[in-house]
Specification:
258 residues; alpha+beta; Fructose-1,6-Bisphosphatase, Chain A, domain 1; D-Maltodextrin-Binding Protein, domain 2; 2 domains; 5-stranded mixed beta sheet; 6 helices
Length: 258
C-alpha cells in the first residue's frame, strides 16, 4: 500500500475513534461550541477533538505535510505537500445521531487540482473510500466506477439553495440530501448517484476542506467535478474561498442543465 494512503488511513482511524469516544462520553455536549475556527465559524467539541488527534499524530510521527484544517487553519511545517483536513464532515449529523458523517483527508501539492491522495472514512460504518491520482479510486479494496444510469441525484435543497437546484431536482426520479459533502461525493464515485450538486443563491456553498478528498475519489472513478458554470473545478488553499460544486457520472448527465 502507498505510504501516503497508509498515513491517511492511520489518521482517519484515530480521528474516528476520537469522534466515537467524544460522542459517547459527552453526549449532547459534544456539539457545544468551544472555539471559533479558521473560517470564523463555531467549532464544536467533537470537531476540535478529532482535529487535535490528527495534528498530534502528524507532529509526533513527523509526517511530511503542512496542515490546512477547518478548525486550526494553516500550519506550515516546511513541507511541499499539504494535508487538507475536515476532521468531521457532517457535524450536525454526528451531534444528532444521524449515521452519515466522515473524516475527510487529502494530500495536495497546492491547489485542488493538485490533490494526489485522498481518503474519506465513513465514521458510522468504518468504511474507507480512497484514491491515488492516476491509479483509481476504491471502496476498501474494490475499485470504484461511476454508473450514470441510476436516475438518483444528491442535491442540497435547503433555504440557501439556488432556484436551479429545484429545477434539476424535478428532472430526477429520486432525490437525496444527506449533509456530508465528502460522503455524498462518494455516492457518485460508487455508482449509487449520478449527480451531486451544492449551489447557493448567493456566493459559493463549499470550501476546499469539504470536498478535496471526494473530488479526487470522483475523478478517479471516472466522474467529473465542476463549478456552477460547468467548468472543471479548482480551488485554492484559501479560507475565504467558497464555490458551488457539481459532480456527475458522465457528460450525458450534463444534459439536465440545458
Amino acid at each position: 500500500m502507498n505510504e501516503n494512503i497508509e498515513n491517511l488511513r492511520k489518521l482517519a482511524h484515530a480521528a474516528r475513534n476520537e469522534i466515537i469516544s467524544t460522542l459517547k462520553k459527552h453526549g449532547d455536549k459534544a456539539g457545544e461550541t468551544v472555539k471559533i475556527g479558521a473560517y470564523g465559524l463555531p467549532s464544536s467539541l467533537v470537531d476540535v477533538k478529532a482535529e487535535s488527534k490528527i495534528i498530534e499524530i502528524v507532529n509526533n510521527e513527523d509526517m511530511p505535510y503542512n496542515i490546512f484544517s477547518e478548525e486550526a487553519g494553516f500550519i506550515d511545517r516546511g513541507y511541499k505537500n499539504t494535508l487538507i483536513v475536515d476532521p468531521l464532515d457532517g457535524s450536525y449529523n454526528a451531534e444528532n445521531n444521524i449515521p452519515f458523517y466522515a473524516v475527510s483527508l487529502a494530500v495536495s501539492g497546492g491547489v485542488l487540482e493538485r490533490v494526489k491522495y485522498a481518503l474519506v472514512k465513513d465514521v458510522s460504518h468504518g468504511v474507507e473510500y480512497w484514491a491515488i491520482k492516476g491509479e483509481g479510486a476504491y471502496r476498501e479494496n474494490v475499485r470504484l466506477q461511476v454508473d450514470g444510469h441510476k436516475n438518483l441525484y444528491v442535491i442540497y435543497l435547503g433555504k440557501k439553495a439556488h432556484p436551479q437546484s429545484f429545477d434539476i431536482a424535478r428532472k430526477a426520479r429520486r432525490i437525496r440530501s444527506f449533509g456530508s459533502a465528502s460522503l455524498e461525493l462518494c455516492t457518485v464515485a460508487e455508482g449509487i448517484a449520478d449527480l451531486f450538486m451544492y449551489r447557493f443563491i448567493n456566493g459559493g456553498a463549499l470550501r476546499i476542506v469539504d470536498i478535496a478528498a471526494g473530488y479526487l475519489i470522483v475523478k478517479e472513478s471516472g466522474g467529473l467535478v465542476l463549478d456552477d458554470a460547468l467548468n472543471p473545478l479548482n480551488m485554492a488553499l484559501d479560507f475565504k474561498e467558497r464555490k458551488n460544486v457539481i459532480a456527475v457520472a458522465n457528460n450525458e448527465i450534463l444534459e439536465v442543465f440545458k
